[in-house]
Amino acid sequence: MRDAFLLDPDIVFLNHGSFGACPAEVFTVFQRWQREMERNPVEFLGRRSGALLAEARAVLGDYIGAPASEIAFVPNATAGVNIVAQSLRLQPGDEVLATDHEYGACDATWREACARQGAVYRQVEIPLPFEHEGFVARMLGAVTPRTRLVFASHITSTTALRFPVDDLCAAARKRGLPVLIDGAHAPGQVSLDLAALGADFYVGNAHKWLCAPKGAGFLHARAAHHRTLTPPVVSWGYIAGADGAGSDGADTDAPAGPLDGFVGRSAIERRLQWQGTRDIAAFLSVPAAIDFQARHDWPARRTRCHALVVETMHRVLRRNGLAPIAADDDFVQMAAIPVRWAGESEALQRRLYDTHRIEVPVTQHGDHTMVRMSAQVYTTQDDADALLDALASLGV
């Protein structure tokens, strides 16, 4: 399926995990929405956008197993984490509990939010090699009476591990602890049923493994939390929420005018999503990405990608003599492959790109330096062989 994407044919692209890659036909839909907006921006943004976004959210909701009324589009998963972090009211000495495998930008978000309120951001060590069975016990064993939120990735960025977040959410719910799951890498890589998962908050990217255009992410929040969420930009949607709001968060007599299509919609939809002039084309293109994957038998292709990335991992490890950081099934379409490299990870990443034209990240966690390979539907056996040959030539 390489020809279905816009990737440079002269590059071995094994880094879908960082920013994704958009199929050509989905990108065409994205551009069509942008052109439609420019034909009459007032009509498009001022009168149609509310209904258009609601339709897109309904398709996304069916895909991720969540009511559309509990979803707001955001630019990316990190933006969603920021909304929750800026909304959480903490007292001095309160704690936000996380793993030590979280994405650096989200770590920074929580450190800032906690420091501003005199709270503590505490990270629980999840040692490598990863032991799936002990994960929940280790996390919940670190809970104290001051713990106010548990934060964990569905699929980690640096180590590419799939954490058992369903078990974590169920255990935290029994303790009365709210949970935020960072699902940046999950949509498109694993099947989702957020209603069954039961996380209080779940953020995800549509532009990574779901292959939507850049700038398409979402925040899912259970209805009970909607009025606690502070919008990143206070605008017309926030004003609409000031009067006439029922217990379900829907307005009954919000003023018309700039809001138009947002009158009568849920609080999360208005307050977090309506910000006036901005490009919503990426959000509106999410249904096209979902349709693209449905027409190309994505579950079967994910299975092939998982097999390719795991096979490549073991080929590398047989040669360099290192052990994997987790079992095969703890990875999905990404795997963090340990390598023998004593220098800076950025130096190895530059060598692989400059010398071998391989686009792949090199990550570090503790004493482990790892090449994080992504396998997407366009990834071939030749691509995997090229990585193996390059690592062998570098002696890693």
Key features of this structure:
Aspartate Aminotransferase, domain 2; Aspartate Aminotransferase, domain 1; three-stranded antiparallel β-sheet; 15 helices
3D architecture notes:
The protein contains 15 helices and twelve strands. Helix 4 (77-87) packs parallel to helix 5 (104-117) and helix 6 runs parallel beside helix 7. Strands 2-8-7-6-5-3-4 form a seven-stranded mixed beta sheet, with helices on both faces. 49% of the residues are buried. By secondary structure, it is α/β, with parallel strands linked by helices. Helix content is 42%, strand content 14%. The chain folds into two domains: 26-291, Aspartate Aminotransferase, domain 2, CATH 3.40.640; 297-394, Aspartate Aminotransferase, domain 1 (Alpha-Beta Complex). The radius of gyration is 22 Å and the shape is globular.
